[in-house]
Design a protein that fits this description.
- With about 90 residues, the protein is mainly β.
- It has strands at about 10-15, 20, 25, 30-50, 55, 65-70, 75-94.
- It is globular, with a radius of gyration of 12 Å.
């Protein structure tokens, strides 16, 4: 896999809970997830070695911010795990 030169949108103006489609990244390389639009919600960066079983990696966000993972697993996704309000967008760069 080659790294992206521009961020890729995983969640686009979502207003409910749910996970994005998983993307395959360069395992062992850095991954950055930027989340905006959180009013009252939680968004987690989740990773998987097999693309099926996902777990939260890093710290879940309850306010706009960036999660950085120095050594990513093979697959990652953004997951809005709790939602009350906001219009949430999550972008990934790897």
């Amino acid at each position: 896999m080659s790294s992206l030169s521009a961020a890729r949108t995983l969640l686009n103006a979502v207003t409910a809970t749910g996970a994005s489609t998983a993307v395959q990244v360069d395992g062992g390389q850095p991954v950055f997830l930027q989340v905006s639009g959180i009013t009252t919600a939680t968004v987690a960066l989740q990773g998987s070695l097999d693309g099926t079983t996902f777990a939260t990696i890093g710290t879940a966000l309850t306010a706009d911010g960036i999660v950085t993972i120095a050594n990513s697993p093979k697959y990652v996704r953004a997951n809005c795990t709790a939602y009350t309000s906001g219009t949430i967008t999550a972008k990934i760069l790897y």
